[in-house]
Design brief:
Bound molecules: 5'-O-[(R)-(benzoyloxy)(hydroxy)phosphoryl]adenosine
Largest sheet: 9 strands, mixed
Structural class: alpha/beta
Number of helices: 18
CATH topology of one domain: Rossmann fold
Strand order of the largest sheet: 2-1-11-10-12-13-14-15-16
CATH architecture of one domain: 3-Layer(aba) Sandwich
Distance between the termini: 72 Å
Shape: globular
Radius of gyration: 23 Å
Length: 557
């Protein structure tokens, strides 16, 4: 076997130390096989099996592989090379899967944005990743993604191609044509195999959930992501008979892992809406066996099931729920009411993912967020002084392991804050580690609002609010919400003699072009913000304040 140099990924990724690499290789966590080859192995094993269902489009493994290789060669024809970046903002459609696999095959790196992102986020990502291309649907849910992508391309000279799905303009690359099968699949495969990416190269960029003003990029390698995917297969029990309804945005680590895990096992991915009526119809029509949801959506499934029990959900075996805390009382209803096994998930784009294991029973599934996927995952729970807490006590979780990179891409200051010198990532989550190895998420120290699984950085919202005329000070905090768990509440101190309304803040955020899920849903105007002894804004006091206001309002009705 030829030994390849690891591509530098234009410097800025933080590699694992060499001794750790040697250990991960020796222990078999890193198999030295790029992700594209794992997919092709599954495709070769069952070429005629249906791999992907998206509405009326059904692609077999053979189709999908031929399309991925066709698209990989066409990316090269456009001049895109290994390590060039494509900013991908595609909804859960077949084109996403083809383009993503094409990237894996060619070494072009996808930067996975979410469909909800707008100018504020995309323009930063294009800049920071030095995107060479942007892939978007022409329109989606009434929004003109093509127009926004064209504006961003005009501002960013690195962007040379717009890949547009369904209705582009002259000069755009038609993404569906790009994703057509290779004319000669055998030759295409051979050509791509000759220049296959190295397994330790970066394979993709994920976005961090928000804690800083702008999202950070997480460079994930072929080896590290393949380990995550394979351990997901083991923990979820996927096989060739798995039919997985992937309803959450595929740009998210949670759904991307599940999607690849299903395909690598020769199972079938079905794209569809998470809304219960449509989802239940799909479960029936496609004999869906598994799905993954955030708690807010799982709750809607339960409500719909209770109100309209008509659909036959008999094929459904496993429901993975994660991304934000699933309340124990909701967890307890899933098995009995939906007739399938609940599997809780707690994880992060930075790496570590925990899942409850079906064999450990209902108590674990309903009261914990699971245990790490890999025996190579290290977990350390520390107190405020950074010392390990006594066993079973709550503290901040630090982690490192074979699929948790040692730093963000090109973010040395942030890395100095959230990665320790010996490579532990400080998750900012407050957890309890049970003697059986399962984690219970108790809270969070980081300044983030988890709106039904969508992560909102308080700092980002505050910086935007400070641009509103008349705002002197601003603080964003989570307010509890029965449906989404949390929503964004903004406290502001107006300048003397000025008035600030929620509409003013929303106007500004819309003008800047911020993803909608970040918009505050309540504004509280105060004379001063409470401060801690360290003269920082006392967010705990603000959270208590908004809770009290909500309780008062509930009592009043
Ligand atoms: C997943 O990934 P991200 O990157 O969107 O968000 C990570 C953060 C965690 O640090 C934690 O604060 C929160 O989301 N979180 C949970 C949770 N799952 C994630 N908080 C409480 N309970 C849970 N079950 O959200 C993600 C990535 C892969 C698998 C699952 C979730």
């Amino acid at each position: 076997m030829t030994v390849r140099a690891v591509r530098p990924s234009r410097a800025g990724t933080v590699p694992w130390p060499e001794d750790v690499v040697a250990e991960y290789v020796a222990k078999g966590y890193w198999q030295g096989v790029p992700l594209g080859r794992h997919f092709l192995a599954a495709a070769d094993a069952a070429p005629d099996a249906v791999a992907l269902v998206d509405g009326d489009t059904r692609l077999t493994f053979h189709d999908l592989a031929a399309r991925a290789d066709g698209a990989a060669l066409r990316l090269r024809d456009l001049g895109l090379r290994a390590d060039d970046r494509v900013l991908v903002q595609l909804p859960n459609r077949w084109e996403f899967v083809v383009l993503f696999l094409a990237c894996l095959r060619s070494g072009v790196l996808p930067v996975l944005a979410l469909p909800a992102h707008r100018r504020h986020e995309l323009s930063y990502l294009a800049e920071h990743a030095e995107a060479a291309a942007i892939a978007v649907p022409a329109t989606f849910k009434g929004f003109d993604h093509r127009a926004l992508a064209a504006d961003i391309a005009a501002d960013h000279p690195t962007v040379t191609h717009l890949l547009v799905s369904g209705g582009g303009q002259p000069g755009d690359v038609d993404l569906r044509e790009l994703c057509a099968p290779a004319a000669d699949p055998v030759a295409a495969r051979a050509a791509l195999d000759r220049e296959e990416p190295g397994s330790r190269d970066t394979a993709l960029f994920l976005l961090s959930g928000g804690t800083t003003a702008l999202p950070k990029l997480i460079a994930r390698t072929h080896d590290d992501y393949a380990h995550y995917v394979h351990r997901t297969v083991d923990a979820a029990g996927y096989g060739p008979d798995t039919v997985n309804l992937v309803a959450l945005p595929v740009g998210h680590n949670f759904s991307l892992g599940v999607l690849l895990a299903t395909l690598f096992e020769g199972g079938r991915v079905v794209f569809g809406s998470p809304e219960p009526e449509q989802a239940f119809e799909l479960v029936e029509r496609e004999s869906v066996t598994h799905s993954g949801l955030v708690p807010a959506v799982a709750q809607r499934w339960l409500e719909h099931r209770a109100a309209a029990p008509g659909h036959d959900l008999g094929t459904l075996r496993g429901l993975m729920v994660g991304g934000s805390r699933l309340p124990d009382h909701v967890a307890a209803r899933i098995g009995p009411e939906l007739g399938c096994a609940l599997q809780q998930g707690y994880g992060m784009a930075e790496g570590l993912v925990c899942l409850t294991r079906p064999a450990e029973g209902d108590e674990v599934a309903c009261h914990t967020q699971g245990r790490p996927l890999s025996e190579g995952d290290e977990l350390l729970v520390v107190d405020e002084a950074g010392e390990p807490v006594p066993a079973g006590e709550p503290g901040v979780l630090l982690t490192r392991g074979p699929y948790t990179p040692r730093g963000y891409y090109r973010a040395p200051e942030q890395n100095a804050r959230v990665f320790t010198p010996d490579g532990w990532y400080r998750t900012g989550d407050i957890v309890r580690l049970r003697p059986d190895g399962n984690v219970v998420v108790e809270g969070r120290e980081k300044d983030m609002i988890n709106r039904g699984g969508e992560k909102v950085s308080a700092e980002e919202v505050e910086n935007l609010a400070l641009q509103v005329d008349g705002v002197l000070m601003a603080a964003a905090v989570a307010m509890p919400d029965a449906e989404l768990g949390e929503r964004v509440c903004l406290y502001v101190v107006p300048r003397t003699g000025r008035e600030v309304r929620l509409a003013d803040v929303l106007d500004l955020m819309r003008r800047v072009g911020v993803a909608r899920y970040k918009l505050p849903e309540r504004l509280v105007v105060v004379d001063a913000l409470p401060l801690t002894g360290m003269q920082k804004v006392d967010k705990k006091a603000l959270r208590a304040d908004v809770e009290q206001r909500l309780a008062g309002e509930r009592a009043a009705v």
